[in-house]
Structures are given as structure tokens and as C-alpha cells.
Amino acid sequence: MARYETRSWPADPSAPGGRAERRAFRYRVFFPDPIAKLQPALPSGVAAAVSVSERAVDALNRDPPRLASLEVLARRLLRAESVASSRIEGLVLSQRRLARAEAEAPDARDETARSVLGNVAAMEHAVALGAAAKPLRLHDLLEIHRHLMLATNTPEIAGRIRDRQNWIGGNAFNPGRADFVPPAPERVKALMEDLVAFMNRTDLPPVVQAAIAHAQFETIHPFADGNGRVGRALIHVMLRRRGLAPRYVPPVSLVLAADAKAYIGGLTAFREDRPADWILSFAEAIERASAKASDLALRLAELQERWRERAGRPRRHSSAEALIVELPAHPIVTVATAQKFLDRSKQAVNEAIATLAEKGILHAITLAKRNRAWEARDLFDLINDFEHDLAIPTDDDEPSRPSPRRKTTSKT
After folding, report:
1. CA torsion, points 313, 315, 317, 323, in degrees to nearest 10?
2. Catalytic: 363?
3. CA 172 to chain centroid
4. Any idea what the CATH number is for the domain that residue 112 is in?
5. Domain that holds residue 340
6. Annotated binding residue 231
7. From start to end residue, where is composition biased (Basic residues) (predicted)?
């Protein structure tokens, strides 16, 4: 049975703060139940919500969007998810700044940009992992963390299970004032192996399995840093692995980020042996993210049609048309990057960029080190509106967490 254990924290005369921070004290560590053989019993209302959410994910993956390239939507959704998942951890980066960072040389990126791009890499690895047919191993989860942390200021912890106690909330020096203290380090590996065994099962509804896997991972908190981002990447692993989301995983982090209190409350309910409460909240987030992702696909297709009209209806196989197809996936381009993803000559790419710039579809900017580039401002306006809509968890007039403002793409 899940339980707390009381442990002692030694006195530390060098600890900052007052005398109370330096004294020895006792604190409680949480040890969750193993879940490898868990059979959750769901009330009928929760089971119905799970079914609705799975139909929404299936619809997103089965109803072909009117986009000329499936990769466009997949790439856009993954970046929306990565930005939102990072925002939950206090790493705030706009979609425009992320696109600029991707187009810049690695040594020109700031710390936040490197961290969010690490989250993109982790998400991409999670998607590939979910598509693989082989059984999951603990090493696979460690690899997600390695991709996340390699470009940060602490690459030495990348892919490594923590070897000391961590905690959530309170201060950075000791767990005396913590909101939650995860399992002690000597128990983490066994709990992670149990989690992997649970993730390899195929007898649970995919959304239920993803909800439980995420909550258990966050409870274990196996890494020194990056737990939230890896835990949300596991949602992508599960939904793709179970075949529910073979093309698009909805950006559920955008919904979870919108109401941090409800998100934390759901994880707390799971730890307090009320998994149905968390599963209901998670299923509703999945359903909303799926519906909004489907809407985004239509809005992207409509934007591309407006671009084609403004560009004078380029020929089907022209470089200008090829660039319009790919712009939602690559909203900031240089000649070199466009050559790479279009697989066309420098002259053809230059002519395509010139055509779209003349029609006001692309706008010239300068990246770090004076590299010339072009951006699709209409795309950033659309994505900002998409994120703003998802940042509002209810019918309230204002979002409960900061969200992108509309029509701000003229600023860095």
C-alpha cells in the first residue's frame, strides 16, 4: 500500500536563511504502490469521458486535414506541446522565438532557447519511441531525459537516475517546507522498472494507461531535473505506442498548462488513491486538445489557401508552392534551411522566397551574426491565437496562466 515514511535531515550550519533552516528536522517521504498489475476500477462517468477522449484523438488522426503535407501539422503540434510543457516549468519562450532559435547557429541560442529545443528533441525521441514495435526498457525512458538535458547547463545529469533526495516546493536547500517529497533514491530504480512493465501492457484503454503512467512517473520524480517535461513526453509514447495516435498526439500540455492548480490537484488525487479523479481530468484535457488540434489543421489549411491567392496561384510543382506547403512547419527560413527541407537548388529557393516576400507572405528579418532570414508573420498570429484559446480552461474571459498575446509578431 502507498505510504509515507518519516526520515531525518541532518543539521547544516552552512545553510542559508535563519536558524530554523540550519537545524536537523524530520520530514515525510512518499512511497507509491507498484502499478505493473494495477486494474483501475472506473465509475461509469469517468469511463464515458475516457471513451469520448479516445474518439477525439482517433478523429484527429483519421480525418485527413486539408494540409498538403501531414508533416506540417505533426511538426507544428509537437512544437506547441514542447513550448507549453516547458512553460509549465517556468521556461517561457514564444513560438516565434523558438523558430528563430531553430534557424540560428547553436552558439547563438540563449539558455531558455537551448532548454526548450532540448524539450523538442525529447518529444521527437518520444514520438519515435512510441512508433517502435519492441518492448519498452528503462533505458528508453532514460534516453528521453538524455535528449532533454544534453543542451542545458547540467548535461552531466542527462539520462541518469537521481542519487539523492529531491522534493517539490519549499526552498532549494532542504525538504523542510516541501509540498511533496518523492521516494528516496534507493527505491527509484525498482519503481521505474515497475512503471516500464506497466507501460508495456496492452489490456487498458490507452488514455487510462497514459494518465496513470504520467502520474506515477511524476510521483517517482526519478531525475534531478526535467521530470515534468519527460513525464509529459511519456503521454506521447503511450498514445502512439497503443496505436491511438499514429500521426498526431494532441498538445495536451497546452491544456494542462492552462490550469496549473487543477493539474497539480489531479496528480495529488492520484497519490491519495483517487485515480478516477485524475483520469477524468486527464481525459477531458486530451479531448479538448484533440478538438483544438483538429481546428488548427483547418485554420492552417485556410491560411495556406490565402497565401496561394496572394501569390497568384503558383504552379503545383513550383518552388513557391513547395515553400507555401512547408511554411507552417518552418515559419522562419533562410536560403540554406529552405534548400535543405525543399531539396531544391539555391536559385530556385531564392526565387521562391523573393516571390513570397513580394506578396507580403514572407518578411525579411536578421538573425544572430547578421544572417538574413524571412518569417511568416501570419503563421505566428495564428499560432498565438491557438495557444491563447487553449490557455483558457473554462468559459472565463481571461486565461488562468500567461498566454501569448494576439498580433505581436512584429516584436522579438
Report:
1. -30
2. no
3. 25
4. 1.10.3290.10
5. 298-390
6. yes
7. 403-412
